[in-house]
Design goal:
With 161 residues, the protein is mainly α. The chain has six helices and four strands; from the N terminus they run αααααββαββ. Strands 1-2 form a two-stranded antiparallel sheet. A two-stranded antiparallel ribbon has the order 3-4. β3 and β4 form a beta hairpin. The longest helix has 24 residues.
């Protein structure tokens, strides 16, 4: 639940100052950095237990790999030129990680000694994150640069949103 709270709070705080697209990118990056932090701390063992049993025999490596992907994705979201590709990559990552959340909810697991989010709530939260990554990937107009021609020459400027 904490990742959702961080995501919403960051988005609301930054939306007016930065615009919705940039606020969405920054809030997603914050959420992914927060969730990545669990991959190496005292909650790591809990995440390893969540990995579905049908996957390769080294769930600890999967947890490390997904944590690295979340960090790289967050960095990409904060870099305007890489925001869309990062969001495109994070979307299937969210989908791939969902079975671990289903397993944790069904088996009543804990993370850091606290019960995992119930499945229905977790599904809604996951949907919100998926919509956000797709919105970043697509953007309102897909524009990374704006062009202006006031003096007869075209000027290209990077835009944050």
């Amino acid at each position: 639940m904490l990742p959702l709270v961080l995501f919403v709070v960051l988005f609301l705080l930054l939306m007016v100052a930065l615009g919705w697209q940039t606020a969405l990118r920054v809030s997603l990056a914050g959420m992914f950095l927060l969730t990545a932090s669990a991959h190496w701390g005292r909650r790591r063992a809990d995440l390893i237990r969540m990995v579905p049993s049908g996957l390769p025999p080294r769930p600890d490596l999967l947890v490390t790999l997904t944590g690295i992907c979340e960090i790289l994705g967050a960095i990409g979201l904060l870099t305007p030129a890489f925001a869309s590709p990062a969001a495109i990559g994070l979307t299937p990552l969210l989908i791939a990680l969902f079975p671990a959340n289903v397993r944790a909810a069904r088996e009543g697991m804990t993370i850091g000694g606290k019960p995992v989010t119930p499945l229905v709530a977790r599904s809604v939260i996951q949907g919100i994150f998926l919509v956000a990554t797709v919105a970043v990937a697509v953007g309102s107009n897909g524009q990374m640069f704006k062009y202006s021609s006031g003096t007869g020459r075209i000027v290209r400027e990077a835009v944050l949103s």
